[in-house]
Amino acid sequence: DAGITQSPRYKITETGRQVTLMCHQTWSHSYMFWYRQDLGHGLRLIYYSAAADITDKGEVPDGYVVSRSKTENFPLTLESATRSQTSVYFCASLLGGVGTEAFFGQGTRLTVV
Amino acid sequence: AQSVTQLGSHVSVSEGALVLLRCNYSSSVPPYLFWYVQYPNQGLQLLLKYTSAATLVKGINGFEAEFKKSETSFHLTKPSAHMSDAAEYFCAVRMNSGYSTLTFGKGTMLLVSP
Asked: Within the 28-87 window of chain B, which residues sit less than 8 Å (CB to CB) from chain A?
C-alpha cells in the first residue's frame, strides 16, 4: 500500500526493555521525522533524517536511537524504556523542496509499565 | 531558529459560529507555514499551507488562513463551524532554507457545541 505506515499501532512494554518502533514510506521522500505527542506539549521532535545515513537530534532525543540505512525505513529504538517514554509516537515523511508538506503515519501508542 | 505559538489550548464555539484559531511564528528566514488537523486516534492531516505565494490560503473543509508578515501570524479561520470540525489543530513552521525541520505548536482543541 502506498503511503506511510507505522508498526505496531499499540505496544505495552516493561521498564528497561528495548523497544523498536517501525516506520515505512513508499514515496522515496528525502526527509523523515519522529515525533512524540504528549498532553500539553503538542508534538516534539525526537530525531529526523534528511537522507539515508544522515540523522540528527531533535528537541527530545535522550533515550532514543534511530537509523536510516534505506530511504524508505526509519526505525526508532528505545534502548531501555522508561515510564516517561509512555507516549504516542508519530512518524512523518517529507519530500523536500519548496513548500512541501509532511505526511504522517497513524501513530504508535506506547505504554511503559 | 524557528518556533510556533498557538494561543489558547482550547477554543469553544457554537455550531454555525466563526472559528478563529491563532498562530504566531518566529523564523530567522522566510517560512513555510502549515495547519494540520488531528481527529481522535488518528494521525495528522494537512489542512492548508503557505509557501510564499498568495497570502490568503484556502484549504480543505472550508478553512482558510492569512499570512501576515508584519504580525508574524498565520491564523486559521472558518466562517461557520460544523460539529465535524471538532478536533485538535496544529500550526507548524518550516524554514525556507535548505535543511530544515518542521516545528509544531502545542495545538488547539476546537470544541463545537450544538
From this structure: 32, 34, 36, 41-46, 49-52
A62 touches chain B (CB under 8 A): no
Q: Return the residue matching grid coordinates 518502533.
A: A21
Confidence of residue A96 (pLDDT cuts 50, 70, 90): confident
pLDDT per residue as tens digits for the range B11-57: 999 999 999 999 999 887 778 999 999 998 889 999 999 987 789 99
- Paired with B104 in beta bridges are B92
For residue B4, how many other CB atoms are within 10 A of its CB?
23
d(CA B64, CA B69): 16
Nearest by CB to residue A99, choosing from B32, B41, B101, is: B32
- CA-nearest of A39, A70, A100 to B46 is A100
3-state secondary structure chain B: CEEEEEECCEEEEECCCCEEEEEEEEECCCEEEEEEEECCCCCEEEEEEECCCCCEEECHHHCEEEEECCCCEEEEEECCCCHHHCEEEEEEEEECCCCCCEEECCCEEEEEEC
